[in-house]
Amino acid sequence: MIKKFLTIGLCSAAFAFGAHTAAQAQDKDLSICFAYQTLETEFWVAGHAAMTQSLDEKGIKVIEVNANEDANRQFEQIKDCITQGVDGIIIIPQDGESVIKMIGEANKAGIPVAVFNRPPNPDNPNDAIVVVADNVSIAEAAVEHLTKKARELNLDRKVQPLIMVGALADTNAIGRREGFNNVIKANSDLYAEPIEVPTEWDASVALANLESALQANPDVDVIFTSSDFLFPQIRAVLSQQGRWQPSGQEGHVILGGLDGDVTACKLIRDGYVDATGVQDLFFEADSTVEALLKAIEEGDKTPKQQIDDKGFALTQDNEAERHQDMWGCVLADKQG
Amino acid sequence: MNNNQIGVLALKNVPFLLFIAIFLVFGLMSDRFLEIQSFANIVKQASFIGIVAIGMTFVMLTGGIDLSVGTNMYLSTVVAGLLMKNYQLDPWLALLACLATGLAMGGVNAFLIVRLRMVPFIVTLGTLVAGRGIGLLLTESRGVILPNELFDFGSGSTFGIPNPILVFLVIAVVGHLILSRTVMGRHIYAVGYDAATAKKAGIPVNRTLGSVYLVSGFCAALGGFVSVSQLGIVNAGFGEFSELYAIAAAVLGGTSLFGGIGSILPGTVLGAVLIQMVQSGLVFVRVDIYLQPIIQAAIIFFAVLLDSIRSRKLADLGKRRIRIEEETTGG
What we know:
The complex is a heterodimer.
Chain A: H1 2-29, E1 31-36, H2 42-57, E2 61-66, H3 71-83, E3 88-92, H4 98-109, E4 113-116, E5 129-133, H5 135-152, E6 161-165, H6 171-186, E7 195-198, H7 203-216, E8 222-225, H8 231-240, E9 254-259, H9 262-269, E10 275-278, H10 281-298, E11 305-309, E12 312-315, H11 319-322, H12 327-335
Parallel strand pairs in A: 1-2, 1-3, 3-4, 4-5, 5-11, 6-7, 6-8, 8-9, 9-10
Antiparallel strand pairs in A: 10-12
Helix pairs in contact in A: 2-10, 3-4, 5-6, 7-8, 9-12
Chain B: H1 3-12, H2 14-29, H3 36-61, H4 69-87, H5 91-115, H6 120-139, E1 144-145, H7 148-155, E2 157-158, E3 161-162, H8 163-181, H9 183-193, H10 195-200, H11 205-231, E4 233-234, H12 242-252, H13 264-284, H14 292-330
């Protein structure tokens, strides 16, 4: 009887081990090309870390290529990956236009492709898994909170809002601008015509243009930056004007952003920033990998799917309860 | 003063007149644009590209070009930033390291151009790519956050003058004096005007050519340092396309792309401030953000076109005067 149990036990163990090894071997055989455009900001560093961790946990061989913000270079890198015969491609593109050609190349080669966080422009005729933050609704959530704070000012004039707009070729920047404008328009009784400051996602351009805009319009009450990485530049300009004050202090400018990075988390805790729209990077990374692996497993060479990250707004009011949901706060806690 | 003389005077000062005209147009559209603080902000914002453009002017006066200045700004400030961040190096020592890196990069350009007789365009294009690669390797593409002391310098003032403007002015005056009052300056103009003749006249052409790339490297590093002291961070994209703005500033200020003609004061300084004034002016008067780059490009294009017409007219007027003098002498 004991022998029988031992035999069954050993066979089961051997089978389980064999199955596990086979599965692992299958995963290990898979190679994914991960082509990203930059690690310039905390957001992209965190996005890169979330993605590589997600791929690593599944034991997949990853070929990483960094385009350093050069769309043409990224296109060549994608073609190299295709030549190397990868099983799937994940792209964080430089912009929504250049990625269309890259998806087209992958489609032609019959390699499933996923686009992470920066969607192709709406006229994209090619097929891809697109995992994207709903920039419009996340921006709306953040600006709604700023609006609540703006109403509390009880000014005897209209509140003057200002938006720092990202690169005009970037669909994320456009979505954020749209979300901002939606809330401003919905509260036209409160707000004056918004001031738009172009930044081209360049810190020095943002600094110069914000300084000019505030010199021309010193009565700005609300500033929304389309990306949290520009908060240091906002601080520089407001400090010079003596308006870098925490909320509740005289001269405080109501501040909001989008991304949910470490700086924004710290500034919310310190009371300088009122709200930031947060992308759930961990959800986005896991969803990208899972959807791509599913397509590979099913033999779908040109999967077409959109996965939306609805995100949320982290504010001074909900920071205590929700800070663990924001990737920037998780990193801030790790950094101490 | 007769009409011709007034015409010549006006033509000679076209960049300055254009500068005043643009300033007044934006001023008419926004009262605040005419305030001294607005102008001070514009000069401050133009300071870093202005410093880089001064170095570029030295190179362009010899008929050369330095496309690596944007990368130089990035690499030299990355070195300084990492030394401050990882080794708590004093910001002033970090500045020296930054300038040394800039000079080293200028030295590489100079060696390849002078010793190996390679074309400046290709050499500096190569160092543009390689230098950024080294910077990205050092930082793994991550931004380098700078200490607050540096930020205090960038946003601070000395004798009531914002520090970036002060550095810009000092470099502009020194550059102007070198070009207008020293042997080196005369050699630079001579080499740019006609290198072969300069060589026959005993001018050390190679040494002159090498020195301008060192000056350019130094200015690029200093301009980068001034800029990051205002930003508080060195991002991976820092300095990209700065070479184009530096070239545009020098050309707008009257520096010839073919060498031998140009100045720093008012020339390049005026060009750098003009570019920034247009950008700031468009923000001041709240022009649609989609139209801003188009208008900015159109104004710069118009300014360069006007400068080119001016140069032709002045050359024509010069020829006529020679003929009149000949006739007078003959009569």
